[in-house]
Design a protein that fits this description.
386 residues; alpha+beta; 6-stranded mixed beta sheet; 13 helices
């Protein structure tokens, strides 16, 4: 960072990526600051600057002490250790130390008492239970789809649907496996000791939303280009297991789209303005790859000019929009993905987004890391209804 860039940054004040300190002497407080950055996407600790962004400067003795303090704290007070980078920059008013803490790939980091700190706006706080789950998920230490759903039993499992799935996938009847159903579900990672996990519930549950009401799809159609709290054209709360959620969500969007003749005869029903293949690919991706540690529904909003699919959770780890556009994937829910490939039009090899873009390029993606959501926007064709 150049002096001019740093000076401009100071003028903007503190935020989730930039913290100002005139000086630091307490290693416990320093450990919490660095850990919060590492657990929350990375950031900069700027020393020699007061809370208002005014440069107070550091003496050579302070710089030597701070370098030693930072190194010792990162190595001895944080688990696993961090590797911050320090840089001394001369500004009007004195020398400022810029401490860069990268977004960690070995998160979550804890202090010596086991506490996990995360950023909270410009400040920091101890991580909540849900945040800790997502941190473990980001390091592939735990996945939401294998977490047991307390209270469920095999009575909540749709054995008939599972039988059809098992026969189609393995080309045999369940009885031919010569395993009791509880053991078979354990082996397929759908249950444990008679309790369904989230994958088992969402894929084959008789009434998944009885246990996880937030894991539904909420569809809304508005007459204009913005959310209208008073007026809507269609709405549907969609419930059920994955196959039901998928079919109903596709049907909801299709009935609210225009259909175009595109050279077909007058007796033809016409083609939807957004190809069905595109809708299917993007809805399947939302179901399989959303963050199930977040208690919120998938939302499908239809406006006069676009269709939006909003999924809880931003892209995992270091995955970026340009990556998914080129077929690079990171499976957040590996058990769901492995079974969904035999229940839905999902291949699980990262080609869904690229296929959708080839079929209909008017798609944009927003990875909202602050809002912790991922949005797909499909522009509607500017054509009058056929």
């Amino acid at each position: 960072m150049t002096p001019a860039e740093l000076f401009e940054r100071l003028a903007l004040g503190e935020d989730s990526r930039h913290q100002f300190k005139a000086d630091v002497k307490n290693d416990t407080s320093l450990a919490a600051e660095m850990m919060a950055f590492a657990n929350s996407g990375g950031g900069y600790l700027i020393l020699g600057v007061d809370d208002h962004g005014q440069v107070v400067g550091l003496t050579p003795a302070q710089i030597r002490r701070l370098n030693q303090l930072i190194a010792n704290t990162a190595a001895q007070k944080i688990r696993p250790p961090l590797n911050p980078v320090t840089e001394n920059i001369r500004l009007d008013g004195g020398i400022v130390m810029l401490v860069t803490i990268a977004n960690s790939i070995t998160k979550p980091h804890t202090d010596l008492q086991g506490a996990i700190w995360v950023k909270f706006g410009a400040d920091k706080r101890r991580a909540s239970r849900e945040e800790m789950q997502r941190l473990f998920q980001s390091s592939s230490l735990v996945h939401a789809d294998v977490v047991p759903v307390d209270g469920t039993t095999l009575a909540d499992f749709d054995t008939k649907s599972f039988q059809a799935y098992f026969q189609a996938r393995y080309e045999m009847e369940i009885t031919e496996s010569k395993l009791p159903l509880p053991q078979l579900l354990n082996n397929l990672n759908l249950a444990q000791n008679g309790t369904l996990n989230l994958a088992g519930l969402l894929l084959f549950g008789q009434d998944p939303q009885r246990w996880r009401p937030q894991f539904m799809i909420k569809g809304m159609t508005y007459p204009g280009t913005e959310i209208d709290l008073d007026t809507y054209m269609d709405c549907q709360d969609i419930f059920g297991a994955f196959p039901d959620l998928f079919r109903q969500a596709v049907a909801f969007v299709l009935r609210n789209l225009r259909h175009l003749q595109d050279g077909q005869g007058i007796n033809s029903k016409g083609r939807p303005e957004i190809p069905r293949l595109v809708l299917e690919e993007l809805l399947v991706n939302a179901l399989v790859h959303r963050d199930y540690f977040i208690a919120a529904p998938i939302r499908v909003f239809i406006y006069s000019d676009r269709v939006e699919i909003i999924s809880p959770g931003h892209l995992p780890n270091h995955l970026r929009i340009e990556h998914i556009q080129h077929g690079i994937t990171n499976q957040r829910n590996p058990v769901l993905a492995s079974h969904a490939s035999h229940l839905l039009p999902y291949q699980g090899i990262g080609t869904g987004i690229t296929r959708a873009l080839r079929a209909y390029p008017a798609i944009t993606f927003t990875d909202d890391r602050d809002g912790n959501q991922f949005k797909v926007c499909m522009q509607r064709r500017n054509t009058n209804p056929a």
